[in-house]
């Protein structure tokens, strides 16, 4: 819903993070924060190779923060949408020994559980339709999706960047759904306070997924943010 609005006048890329979406989950790969950053870097180096406007939503926000900190030369500006990655958390996932990992992924695969998560993600619960649930479950048919998720969780995932956010020098736009029931709303202001050159904009009547629930408003804020120079950008 958001991609066509951004891509109308800008070269725009949408990337599935390693181990997620529709990426291959080859046996022997390390599915971890470091592996995701490496995969994203070589995607950027191979196909773009110039500073970009990096947009990340939810866990993708944590990945975007990590990439910006690791490869600042690749990021011109940063956009965070209801982003994970502020709080430092403990790695309880390391205790996901068999069969606990497979039980956990089976739980997450349950249609009723997925629908409840979908309903909580929106402010307007009518948007958690059967079609939305079907789209959100497509990646479950990818080979080895559960093994990759278990491996990522056991690696520690994204433990939080609270103490490193002050290192971000790029202009940063923080968009946050006013009624986010997944991550809550407290971290929005914390991100703005921790990142020196940042601006927080609240999206009213919106839950955890402004890019799905309010794509036009979300696109408008992003386009205004990235086109202040008057030039088209790589996103």
Structure description:
- With 235 residues, the protein is an alpha/beta fold.
- Helix 8 links the parallel strand 3 and strand 4.
- Helix 2 crosses helix 3 and helix 4 packs across helix 7.
- Strands 1-2-3-4 form a four-stranded parallel sheet, sandwiched between helices.
- It is built from ten helices and four strands, in the order ααβαβααααβαβαα.
- The mean pLDDT is 90.
- The protein has one domain: Rossmann fold.
- Helix content is 41%, strand content 11%.
Question: Which features would summarize this protein structure in a list?
Answer:
4-stranded parallel β-sheet; single chain; 235 residues; alpha/beta; Rossmann fold; 4 strands
Overall CATH class: Alpha Beta
Helix-strand category: alpha/beta
Instruction: Find the CATH superfamily.
Output: Alpha/Beta hydrolase fold, catalytic domain
Q: Total number of helical segments?
A: 10
Strand order of the largest sheet: 1-2-3-4
Tally of separate domains: 1
Would you tell me which CATH topology applies?
Rossmann fold
Number of DSSP E strands: 4
**Mean pLDDT across all amino acids:** 90
Strand content: 5-15%
Low-confidence stretches: none
**CA(first)-CA(last) distance:** 15 Å
Give the SSE order as H and E letters: HHEHEHHHHEHEHH
For the record, the CATH architecture stands as 3-Layer(aba) Sandwich
> Globular, elongated, flat, extended or rod-shaped: what is the shape?
globular
The Rg value, from CA coordinates, equals 17 Å
User: Roughly how much helix do the residues carry, as a percent range?
Assistant: 40-55%
The biggest beta sheet reads: 4 strands, parallel
């Amino acid at each position: 819903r958001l991609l066509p609005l951004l891509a109308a006048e800008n070269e725009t890329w949408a990337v599935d993070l390693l181990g997620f979406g529709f990426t291959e989950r080859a046996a022997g790969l390390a599915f971890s924060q470091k592996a995701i950053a490496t995969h994203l870097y070589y995607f950027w180096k191979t196909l773009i190779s110039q500073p970009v406007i990096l947009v990340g939503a939810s866990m993708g926000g944590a990945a975007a923060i990590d990439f910006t900190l690791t490869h600042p030369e690749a990021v011109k500006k940063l956009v965070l949408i209801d982003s994970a990655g502020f709080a430092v958390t403990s790695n309880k996932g390391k205790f996901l020994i068999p069969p606990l990992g497979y039980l956990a992924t089976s739980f997450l695969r349950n249609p009723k559980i997925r629908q409840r998560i979908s309903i909580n993600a929106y402010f307007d619960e009518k948007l958690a339709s059967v079609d939305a649930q079907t789209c959100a479950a497509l990646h479950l048919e990818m080979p080895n999706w559960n093994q990759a998720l278990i491996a990522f969780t056991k690696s520690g995932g994204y433990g939080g960047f609270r103490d490193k956010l002050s290192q971000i020098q790029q202009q940063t736009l923080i968009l946050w759904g006013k009624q986010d029931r997944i991550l809550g709303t407290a971290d929005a202001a914390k991100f703005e306070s921790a990142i020196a050159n940042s601006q927080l904009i609240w999206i009213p009547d919106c839950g955890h997924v402004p890019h799905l629930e309010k794509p036009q408003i979300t696109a408008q804020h992003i386009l205004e943010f990235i086109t202040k120079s008057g030039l088209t950008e790589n996103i």
